[in-house]
Amino acid sequence: MRVMGVDPGLTRCGLSMIESGRGRHVTALDVDVVRTPADEPLQKRLLTISDTVEHWMDTHVPDVIAIERVFANHNANTAMGTAQAGGVIALAAARRNIDVYFHTPSEVKAAVTGNGRADKAQITTMVTKILALQQKPTPADAADALALAICHCWRAPMIARMAEAEAKAAEQKKRYQARLKAVRA
């Protein structure tokens, strides 16, 4: 499975591409950070992010996109910009019929470090070890994008099993309700 990890942001948007192998083996294929000037109009910044992300999607052809979910932020402007960047990326994926999954920062931290409250340095260190990189990815947005992709690779089998279980439960509920309706009739 080829996963594009995205740490969305207006000033710096981390992008990564990894491929999963057997078990927990993952391989880094590419990583970059899209930067946009803070003094540029919002629509131009979003266009820069969109153009870069679309190029990545067309070049690397990911199976899924893993985006950091905007969770909570003390700065409403930062949270809004992050959400807008994430929305542009999800839209680009939808246009290419690529599934998008959102993971919270604590899910990513827990998957990569075993600690949902890990700091940036711990994430960077673990990403470097997991992917057997020669040097630490910089800036932190690049490491975060790689961590998102790793998290999704490792969580995808569980996500698929949960979806399957939910579908079975819904089908069983439907059959039960049909039987109940027949008995009442």
From TrEMBL:
Q: Which domain of life is it from?
A: Bacteria
| GO CC annotation | cytoplasm; Holliday junction resolvase complex
Gene3D superfamilies per record: Ribonuclease H-like superfamily/Ribonuclease H
Q: Which InterPro entries match?
A: RNaseH-like_sf (IPR012337), RNaseH_sf (IPR036397), X-over_junc_endoDNase_Mg_BS (IPR020563), X-over_junc_endoDNase_RuvC (IPR002176)
Details of cofactor binding: Binds 2 Mg(2+) ion per subunit.
**Ranges in coiled-coil conformation:** none
Q: Which residues form the active site?
A: D7, E68, D141
Q: Which reaction does it catalyse?
A: Endonucleolytic cleavage at a junction such as a reciprocal single-stranded crossover between two homologous DNA duplexes (Holliday junction)
Name the GO terms of the biological process aspect: DNA recombination; DNA repair
* Protein residues bound to Mg(2+) 1: D7, D141
**GO MF annotations, alphabetized:** crossover junction DNA endonuclease activity; DNA binding; magnesium ion binding
Which EC numbers characterise this protein's activity in its record?
Answer: 3.1.21.10
Which cofactor is essential here? Mg(2+)
State the family it belongs to.
Belongs to the RuvC family.
Can you state the subunit structure given in the record?
Homodimer which binds Holliday junction (HJ) DNA. The HJ becomes 2-fold symmetrical on binding to RuvC with unstacked arms; it has a different conformation from HJ DNA in complex with RuvA. In the full resolvosome a probable DNA-RuvA(4)-RuvB(12)-RuvC(2) complex forms which resolves the HJ.
- The protein, known as: Crossover junction endodeoxyribonuclease RuvC
The organism's taxonomy opens as:
Bacteria, Bacillati, Actinomycetota, Actinomycetes, Mycobacteriales
